[in-house]
């Protein structure tokens, strides 16, 4: 095929009904499009075959993970240009995914590839999650968590740094260090929960043990941390032992639905509730409510999506669902607050820290890119590409207010109505 890029570029613009804002570089070395823009590189014909069989987001995701597609130039600028087709399109324009689902795209690509017979579907990249069974059972939740978190503690340490905190940091300044910002986030949670010596904390989705260690070491509480990841638990137990805190911190591989040793004085749930699922969320909130003593506090730190006018049309992002967080679901923050209140909680404070997550993700991407070859060695080329795309795209989504992240402080207020919170909120004493 001669000059494949020009033919593909013209086809995409025709189907979009709008200019395609990137250069397009094809496997034959040809290029088309704005010369100064980042290039969307179609490395081989297999990329087009993937789009024939899975037109839209999933086909694009598979091509990216397999290395059939890539962006040459600044990744954030390239992704911003691609997302601009979605968020700033004109009256008659369509999204790129919509254009790829147009029957004319399939007919044109079959012609461009000069296929002698029916095309064969390429196998999905091995990093794609495989599903069986119902969503959000104990078994499927364990499998989903393992897919995301059991990819190697060394890989996560490379990306997250020594803090080993895999959630939004809390920045005093964009110039601060990632380690200080993560320490400050955990400290903010501890203050909101009013942790003090002699109290009992349940850390739901404890990850690699950072919250449990900080709460025990700096606030003198006894902590039970639970996770569904065997690798996280092993790493967290070693960190607890190295810190000399085995008498105050217990790490369990346990589902939140199986915790029966309440009551606790406080519960932290940091970046875990996104895995619960809409149909299980009230069960989650009710279980945590039951585990708190009267007057106990819950700090629920959770990513939120923007609400849609017609919620019945909402669907999970295919890339995120297949490669990043299988079975994960985001809800609007109003839905989360409603479910917590339905479970019996009194919601006392909500703090949006959306911009903080964009800063955090850009630091994680920078760490990944700075040690790219080692990241590939620790996992796989496909897995490293998944994390680079997901974190960079998520940073832009937070910056553009397409998603947010909120800390919701809720109380199991006793019958006499004494919440135990200060008259002036956010002193957190």
| Helix content range | 40-55%
Overall number of strands: 11
Strand order of the largest sheet: 7-6-5-8-9-11-10
Q: How many alpha or pi helices?
A: 17
Strand content: 15-25%
Shape: elongated
Average pLDDT over all residues: 90
Major beta-sheet overview: 7 strands, mixed
Instruction: Tell me the distance between the termini.
Output: 69 Å
Helix-and-strand structural type: alpha/beta
Highlighted features:
single chain; 429 residues; alpha/beta; seven-stranded mixed β-sheet; four-stranded mixed β-sheet; 17 helices
Summarize the structure.
By secondary structure, the chain is α/β, with parallel strands linked by helices. It contains 17 helices and eleven strands. It is elongated.
SSE layout and pairing:
Blueprint: H1 4-16, E1 23-25, E2 31-32, E3 39-42, H2 45-53, H3 57-66, E4 69-72, H4 75-87, H5 96-100, H6 103-113, H7 138-149, H8 153-160, H9 178-192, E5 200-204, H10 210-219, E6 222-227, H11 230-242, E7 249-253, E8 264-270, H12 281-291, E9 292-305, H13 318-324, H14 333-342, E10 346-352, H15 354-370, H16 372-378, H17 381-399, E11 403-411
Parallel strand pairs: 1-3, 5-6, 5-8, 6-7, 8-9
Antiparallel strand pairs: 1-2, 3-4, 9-11, 10-11
Helix pairs in contact: 1-6, 2-3, 2-6, 3-13, 4-17, 9-10, 12-14, 13-17, 15-17, 16-17
């Amino acid at each position: 095929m001669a000059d494949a890029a020009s033919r593909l570029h013209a086809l995409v613009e025709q189907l979009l009904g709008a200019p395609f804002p990137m250069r397009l570089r094809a496997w034959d070395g040809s290029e088309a499009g704005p010369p100064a823009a980042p290039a969307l590189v179609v490395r081989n014909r297999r990329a087009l075959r993937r789009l024939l069989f899975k037109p839209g987001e999933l086909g694009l995701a598979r091509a990216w993970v397999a290395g059939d597609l890539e962006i040459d130039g600044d990744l954030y600028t390239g992704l911003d240009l691609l997302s601009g087709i979605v968020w700033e399109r004109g009256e008659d324009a369509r999204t790129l995914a919509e254009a790829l689902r147009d029957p004319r795209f399939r007919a044109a690509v079959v012609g461009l590839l000069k296929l002698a017979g029916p095309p064969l579907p390429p196998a999905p990249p091995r990093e794609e999650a495989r599903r069986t069974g119902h969503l959000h059972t104990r078994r499927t939740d364990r499998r989903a968590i393992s897919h995301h978190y059991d990819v190697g503690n060394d890989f996560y340490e490379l990306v997250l740094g020594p803090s080993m905190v895999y959630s939004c940091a809390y920045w005093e300044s964009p110039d601060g260090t990632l380690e200080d910002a993560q320490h400050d986030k955990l400290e903010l949670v501890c203050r909101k929960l009013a942790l003090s010596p002699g109290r009992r904390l349940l850390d739901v989705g404890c990850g690699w043990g950072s919250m449990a260690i900080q709460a025990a070491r700096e606030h003198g509480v006894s902590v039970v941390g639970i996770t569904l990841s065997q690798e996280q638990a092993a790493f967290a137990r070693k960190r607890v032992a190295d810190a000399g805190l085995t008498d105050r911190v217990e790490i369990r591989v346990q589902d939140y639905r199986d915790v029966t040793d309440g009551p606790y004085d406080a519960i932290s749930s940091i970046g875990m509730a996104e895995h619960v699922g809409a149909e299980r969320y009230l069960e989650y909130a009710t279980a945590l409510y039951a585990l708190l003593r009267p007057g106990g506090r819950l700090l629920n730190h959770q990513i939120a999506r923007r609400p849609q006018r017609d919620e019945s049309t909402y669907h999970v992002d295919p890339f995120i669902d297949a490669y990043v967080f299988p079975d994960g679901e985001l809800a609007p923050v109003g839905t989360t607050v409603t479910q917590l209140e339905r479970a019996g909680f009194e919601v006392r404070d909500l703090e949006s820290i959306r911009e903080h997550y964009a800063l955090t993700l850009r630091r994680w991407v920078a760490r990944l890119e700075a040690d790219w070859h080692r990241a590939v060695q620790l996992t796989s080329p496909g897995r490293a590409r998944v994390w680079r795309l997901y974190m960079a795209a998520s940073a832009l989504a937070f910056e553009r207010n397409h998603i947010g992240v909120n800390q919701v402080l809720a109380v199991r207020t006793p019958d006499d109505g004494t919440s135990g919170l200060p008259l002036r909120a956010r002193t957190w004493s």
